[in-house]
């Protein structure tokens, strides 16, 4: 059968190219009885008759083909806009969202409030499978306090990134600090010992510098001994290379210059003083005394700051990631309650602003427990420098 090149539409009476007609197997020529434009009008009329019978209304019919190239119609705001104003949606044949960006955001927010109650509840269920009420109940069970630092309000849901299991509600800083340490108990343990000068790093400094105190004079002496006859020239080359970069300004903050930092990197063999995995690229110092403690990788340096440079918080974090810190205990009335301090205290009985004495008691307990683990080696004990 010869292919039809053109056909007359029964509705509009116009003769149009075959491409203007849909396929129809029941027709002798294999084309529909009506052109695409008239077919759309017929379908639209049928759909609107059904809506009217249900007591509902519908927008006026509008052919999509009427949209100019490079433009798209948004049925929400009833405007034709450039396609750049529409988001991406791989699930649709056009690759774009139905609505323009402002309308899409508004419709999404309305849907989340209608189905989940709020944006927060939607995100909680999406990420953790918890409702807003369940999270509020967890916060109340903790006495409203972060279970790690016992300082700031509990606001962030924390979960195990390996299993996806929700653990507790933490403050922003503690939640971020755990992430910087990759929830690794060993790194947290080394970080706590690093702050208390119990780690291998102190021995390294004593062997190389003769002291655990990092100063420009100690590093200069090490430089002159390590590079005899070339120390001053080497230092000048380093300072010239660094110029007025951030490393070159370290003397103003910590009493070290770029050459001193370069020497400390050499002593540490360019590895982090805590994890020994990352590069020694950040100068870590005590924010109260400005004394330099060592060079750390980005994760350990940031994690220590977020966990407040507090050995007690770091040791609590070790128990926390091991699942030993937060536990349920009998509440005396047949139920259970949470316990996460030593000595134990019922979180519900602690008034707002009343956690400080419990935090200090817990810190003292953990320090004594760490001291009981063993007698310090002779190369660690130094009351003057510690």
TrEMBL record:
This protein's UniProt keywords: Endonuclease, Hydrolase, Nuclease
Protein name listed in UniProt: Recombination endonuclease VII
SUPFAM superfamilies recorded: His-Me finger endonucleases
GO MF entry, a single one: endonuclease activity
Keyword Cell division part of the UniProt annotation: no
Native organism: Actinomadura rubteroloni
UniProt keyword annotation of Iron present: no
InterPro entries for this protein: Endonuclease_7, Endonuclease_7_sf, His-Me_finger_sf
């Amino acid at each position: 059968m010869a292919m039809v090149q053109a056909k007359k539409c029964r509705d509009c009476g116009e003769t149009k190219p075959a491409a203007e007609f849909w396929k129809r197997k029941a027709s002798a020529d294999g084309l529909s009885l009506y052109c695409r434009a008239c077919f759309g009008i017929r379908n639209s009329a049928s759909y609107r008759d059904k809506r009217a019978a249900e007591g509902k209304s519908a927008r006026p019919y509008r052919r999509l083909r009427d949209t100019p190239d490079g433009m798209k119609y948004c049925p929400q705001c009833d405007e034709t806009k450039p396609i750049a104003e529409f988001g991406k949606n791989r699930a649709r044949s056009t690759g774009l969202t139905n609505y323009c960006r402002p309308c899409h955001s508004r419709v999404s927010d309305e849907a989340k409030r209608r189905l989940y109650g709020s944006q927060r509840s939607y995100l909680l269920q999406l990420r953790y499978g918890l409702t807003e009420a369940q999270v509020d109940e967890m916060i109340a069970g903790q006495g409203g306090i972060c279970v790690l630092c016992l300082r700031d309000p509990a606001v962030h849901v924390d979960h195990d990134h390996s299993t996806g299991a929700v653990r507790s509600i933490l403050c922003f800083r503690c939640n971020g600090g755990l992430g910087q340490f990759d929830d690794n108990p060993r790194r947290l343990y080394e970080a706590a010992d690093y702050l208390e000068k119990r780690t291998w790093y102190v021995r390294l400094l004593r062997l190389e510098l003769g002291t655990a105190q990092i100063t420009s004079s100690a590093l200069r002496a090490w430089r002159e001994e390590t590079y005899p006859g070339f120390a001053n020239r080497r230092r000048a080359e380093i300072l010239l290379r660094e110029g007025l970069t951030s490393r070159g300004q370290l003397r103003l903050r910590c009493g070290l210059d770029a050459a001193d930092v370069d020497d400390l990197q050499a002593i540490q063999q360019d590895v982090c003083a805590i994890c020994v995995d990352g590069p020694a690229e950040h100068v870590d110092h005590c924010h109260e005394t400005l004394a330099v403690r060592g060079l750390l990788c980005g994760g350990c340096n940031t994690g220590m700051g977020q966990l407040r440079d507090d050995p007690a918080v770091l040791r609590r974090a070790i128990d926390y990631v091991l699942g030993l810190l937060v536990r349920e205990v009998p509440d005396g009335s047949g139920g259970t309650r949470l316990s996460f301090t030593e000595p134990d205290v019922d979180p519900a009985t602690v008034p707002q602003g009343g956690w400080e004495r419990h935090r200090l008691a817990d810190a003292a307990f953990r320090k004594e427990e760490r001291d009981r683990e063993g007698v310090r080696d002779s190369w660690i004990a130094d009351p003057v420098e510690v």
